[in-house]
Amino acid sequence: MPEEINRIVTDSNSSLLWTPSPDADENLRREGISSEKIVRVGNIMIDSLVYRTPEIQNDPIVQRLALSPKHYIPVTLHRPSNV
């Protein structure tokens, strides 16, 4: 997948690799990345969702579609396997 090739190339040229989880750390170590270059920062996708939740809930489309809290899920679809 092109996205994965881009990640590998970028990782090989990066001084620091920010990861969301222990398993991501381990995956990088298995690829030969030094532990000194790996910094766990948390899940930025979840952090972004939490940060934007008030904005999402107050979006006019939510009112127009009469969506109730906890009865919808915002998603992004950008990978070929998802769409």
- How many helices? The count is 4
Mean of the pLDDT scores?
89
- The parts where pLDDT drops under 50 for at least 5 residues are none
* Beta fraction: 5-15%
Shape: elongated
Q: How far apart, in Å, are the first and last alpha carbons?
A: 15 Å
Account of the 3D structure:
This protein has 83 residues and is mainly alpha-helical. It is built from 4 helices and 2 strands, in the order H-E-H-E-H-H. It has helices spanning 2-12, 22-30, 44-57, 60-64, and strands at 17-19, 38-40. The protein has a two-stranded parallel ribbon with strand order 1-2. The two termini are 15 Å apart.
What brief labels describe this structure?
mainly alpha, 2 strands, single chain, about 80 residues, two-stranded parallel sheet
A few lines on this structure:
With 83 residues, the protein is mainly alpha-helical. 47% of the residues lie in helices and 7% in strands.
Topology:
Blueprint: H1 2-12, E1 17-19, H2 22-30, E2 38-40, H3 44-57, H4 60-64
Parallel strand pairs: 1-2
